[in-house]
């Protein structure tokens, strides 16, 4: 497994908030899915409320 850095922004109450997460995953798609699932479970956001700008190894 590799470590990926996922950057983007999510819709908060007062506008868009930037984020940067480091995720251990098999590939970029799995890292992207993990971030979307985490924001959904922790913040109650839908996938359309999270904008992933980039995934870097």
From TrEMBL:
<comment type="similarity">
    <text>Belongs to the eukaryotic ribosomal protein eL20 family.</text>
</comment>
<comment type="subunit">
    <text>Part of the 50S ribosomal subunit. Binds 23S rRNA.</text>
</comment>
<keyword id="KW-0694">RNA-binding</keyword>
<keyword id="KW-0689">Ribosomal protein</keyword>
<dbReference type="InterPro" id="IPR028877">
    <property type="entry name" value="Ribosomal_eL20"/>
</dbReference>
<dbReference type="GO" id="GO:0005840">
    <property type="term" value="C:ribosome"/>
</dbReference>
<dbReference type="GO" id="GO:1990904">
    <property type="term" value="C:ribonucleoprotein complex"/>
</dbReference>
<feature type="domain" description="Large ribosomal subunit protein eL20">
    <location>
        <begin position="1"/>
        <end position="55"/>
    </location>
</feature>
<dbReference type="GO" id="GO:0006412">
    <property type="term" value="P:translation"/>
</dbReference>
<keyword id="KW-0687">Ribonucleoprotein</keyword>
<dbReference type="Pfam" id="PF01775">
    <property type="entry name" value="Ribosomal_L18A"/>
</dbReference>
<dbReference type="GO" id="GO:0070180">
    <property type="term" value="F:large ribosomal subunit rRNA binding"/>
</dbReference>
<dbReference type="InterPro" id="IPR023573">
    <property type="entry name" value="Ribosomal_eL20_dom"/>
</dbReference>
<protein>
    <recommendedName>
        <fullName>Large ribosomal subunit protein eL20</fullName>
    </recommendedName>
</protein>
<keyword id="KW-0699">rRNA-binding</keyword>
